[in-house]
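Structure Section — protein described below
Tokens — whole-number codes for backbone shape
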Amino acid sequence: AAIATLAVLQQAVAIGRAARTKAQVAEARDLRGIQARGAGIYWNEQADWFCHRGFVTKAFECYEKAVAADPKDPVILQNQAICLFLYRKDSTAYYQLDEQALYDKVFALYDRALRLDPENFALATDMAMTYYSIKPQRPEDALKAWKKVLERADSDVFADDWADMGLRRDCELAVSRVSICSSYFCTLFFLLHRTSNSNQVET
């Protein structure tokens, strides 16, 4: 029995050493990753990995590290905004915010990203579409966001491709829907008239 107990203890010690070695290797790998790709990019990749697999608390922690390391990377800010919005229940608990305050935080992240990448059509669209999913709705803010999308549709390098796919017209219709909610009927009339004319030209 004593020999058996000794063997178990030796095995436990060996496992402990292996675990420590594994942890040290992982830590060294993490440090090499940070040095190779930059801390902001590294932590953003880690956050994306955790977010996509549902480990949202770890994702929040990594996004905070990513933003702290590189606060001027619009991709990191957009990714954090998306993660916080997708996992609203978890993010309100983690940041100790009510739902409306969380929405404010999400849109603040989008605003920061757009200031850093002002002609990014896809980023502006992502932000504008988020307004569809919040309650109570914020029609005036949503209208401003969709107008920014239309502004970028003409300036972005891929604007012609989006025009060919009819996405610009879709954006105009989105502004029309928001205008109905916010009683901006002058804007609504203008956009519906513009959309009708574009349809006639296409046919």
Q: What stands out?
A: The longest helix spans residues 2-37.
